[in-house]
User: What shape does this take?
Amino acid sequence: METVVFENRSKNNYLQAVLFSTLILVFVGGSVALAILSGKVSNVLVFQISGFIYGLSALMYIFQFFFKNENVGKVGTLFAFLGWLTQTVGLFLRGLESYYMGIFHPPWTNLYESLMFFPWLAVGLYLYIEREYKTKVIGTFFMPIVAFLVIWGHKFNTDINPLVPALRSYWLYLHVLASFVGYAGFTVSFGASFAYLIKHNFNKEVEVKSVYYLGFVFFLVLSGIFGYLTLTGAKDIKTMMFGVIFILSLLGLLYFAVYVLKPIGKVLPSENILSEIAFKAVAISFPIWTASIMLGGAWANEAWGSYWSWDPKETWALIVWLFFAAYIHGRTIGKWKGTTSSWIVVAGFIMLLICYFGVNLYFPGLHSYATE
Assistant: This one.
């Protein structure tokens, strides 16, 4: 009689996870300790280094995509992980620096800190998805955006300042953290949905006409011009109009891009996998985003005496919620699957950008402190 031996894989996986987590803690703890003891390494410098590493990672992913070199792709993943570890050190270091200044607060209280914290969450989630689905193609589009955000974030005020009275609350840890988890998850869902649209056109052998190339170039130039004017303009009506044109041109660019980029559909994962990634990311993020809105309402009532004030940030957070609620509803009842649901995610992501950047920079309100 043959004896069947079952491998205790769960135990091995558990031990590997514990060892891996221990190594991360040792690295982060050691790096933070060295930075503090030296007195010459600031959190800003560490974040700048992480942006450089993310840039190298982006280049490796792009190189791997065009030249189909698996080893280069592994280097890209390694750099992404090293950048994530470096950012982890920066976040701990910034928190400790604020503590030694006597004004301790978590490192996500203003626009600069959020532009360091949000990519950190998003990269962590991306690395998990890459490992889970064994595909590096999404990194080709994802990592350049991460590198840009971390590097571009240094144009804002990097100083550590005392919190305004409204932020001196335990709600800061709950509400803001939940919001950024939602931002990260919705961003991953957007990447998967956009890739799905490209893959769909490739599988359907959609004819790419000249008008698509012309439209792509036109909206690329238009979004570049008005994106620059929006980001460098003053907080006035003219700049706000530039922002509206930028958003519309960005939507046009994405529409034509799913046709122009059709050839890369050959190397993208299957439609089913991309659809699954998009849905899972929203399924995880949506309840957390809902919780962030509810927690924000409780905090607002404690700070300002009202659960809901139709503040611009609150309003756009609700708009984002409605878009992704529609997506989940459509996917669940089975009538909005495929390209329709993917375009809902794309549109929802544009609303997310307005909620994150537009409101903070150009709409005065109760959340205006986020620009400091």
User: Anything to note?
Assistant: Confidence is low (pLDDT under 50) at residues 1-9. The first helix runs from residue 9 to 38. The CA atoms of residues 61 and 140 lie 5 Å apart. Residues 16-163 form one domain.
